[in-house]
Amino acid sequence: MNKEDKPIVGITMGDPASIGPEIAVKALLNPTIYEICNPVLVGDAGVFRDIATRLNLNVIINPITSVPNAKFELGTIDVYDLANVDLANLKFGEISAMAGEAAFASVKTVIDLALADEVDATVTGPINKKSINEAGHHFAGHTEIYAQFTNTKKYGMLLVEDQLKVIHVSTHVSLRQACDLVKKDRILEVVDLLYNGLISLGETNLKIGIAGLNPHAGDSGLFGTEDDEEILPAVEEAKRRGYDVEGPVPADTLFSKAATGYYGGVVAMYHDQGHIPFKLTGFKWNADKKQMDSVKGVNITMGLPIIRTSVDHGTAFEIAGKGVASPDAMILAIESAVQLSKYRKKNLQAV
User: Fold this and answer.
1) Is Metal-binding there in the keyword field (predicted)?
2) Cα separation of 122 and 334, whole Å?
3) What would the pLDDT profile of 55-83 be if each residue is shown by its tens digit?
4) Could you tell me which CATH class the domain 154-303 is placed in?
5) Comparing 1-152+304-351 with 154-303, is the CATH topology the same?
6) Which residues contact 301 (CB under 8 A, 6 or more apart)?
7) According to the CATH classification, is domain 1-152+304-351 in 3.40.718.10?
């Protein structure tokens, strides 16, 4: 495939004090990435050069100030250079306003590049929410940043790892607030977002499982009324709209079936209900080494006018700069971004 035929993928640095720069550079050492896309990192070129030097990675960092100047060649990593990190004051594993500002700037820049059609898709590295907030940007996470700067009102977090695909009714809110957000209309919104996500990813199993909120899905009102009063009516309406849905299914049953591919995707009612089974599937902890052997999983923000995928893990401050971080999730996030880009391009050509 010629360079001109491949999607341009903008990849953010993440928090410079985290494993973000490391996994980005490691991912772009994989020849497969350059076979499927034209990747460009967005952040501080000095940070990427420093991590490559520290880890003895055989790569050239090529700072650029515009995407057309990128070389897109294996062995040379193009960096849309924001030059906004003072390496003398950067410490791995530490929260700081400087790191938060640099991380935020890389996200805002890649959004702007995508909105201007200079990149075809965006991929984000891990950020530290406290550092972002200390820099004066009061967001709960990437999803909310993207929603604001793309003026998106209806969106959802879709997690993808092998056969398990999970979208959430709510994410970064308290558990008490999450219960209040379980509403029929919102559930129908995320069913639609999930269905579109499955289609975009090329999935053929479109059966959707919808989790209950309460133990035993409320057990006919014995353990709460939300399942009967909000979730069940949403399921019935989704069926009337032509979706193949099942629910509310008690979560402890739903996810064991979903992990085997019984459902093409599932709707979780709140953050941890979806994240815990997802990470049990994709994250492999090595008890002897006291570190992750592999961290797999992709986070896709559905409903945006641009493509955004991300690693579904945090900053891992405890291992930042040590050279042991796995790029698996970043590679998967890039691959998913390419798949979504191809689907979008195909649809645009059909119009």
Assistant:
1) yes
2) 8
3) 999 999 999 999 999 999 999 999 999 99
4) alpha beta
5) yes
6) 142, 143, 146, 147, 155, 156, 157, 158, 308, 309, 310
7) yes
Question: What is the DSSP pairing of strand 156-161 with strand 245-249?
Answer: unpaired
Q: Please tell me the distance from the alpha carbon of residue 109 to that of residue 120, in angstroms, as a whole number.
A: 14
Chain-centre distance for alpha carbon 219: 34
Structure tokens, 335: 């691959």
Six-digit token string for 129: 């929410």
Report H helices in 207-327: 226, 232-240, 251-258, 271-282
Contact 303, 336 (CB under 8 A): no
- CB-CB contact of 112 with 120 (8 Å): no
Reading across the β-sheet that carries 8-12, which strands appear in turn? 60-64, 76-81, 38-43, 8-12, 121-124, 308-311, 298-302, 156-161, 164-168, 265-268, 208-211, 245-249
**88-117 pLDDT, tens per residue?**
999 999 999 999 999 999 999 999 999 999
Check if the beta carbon of residue 1 is closer than 8 Å to that of residue 35.
Answer: yes
Q: Token match 């909000």: residue?
A: 230
Amino acid found at 220:
S
- pTM of the shown model: 0.88
Q: Which residue has the tokens 């360079």?
A: 3
Q: Report the alpha-carbon distance of residue 54 to residue 315 in Å, rounded.
A: 18
Q: Where are the domains of the chain?
A: 1-152+304-351, 154-303
Which residues are registered as beta bridge partners of 311?
A: 298
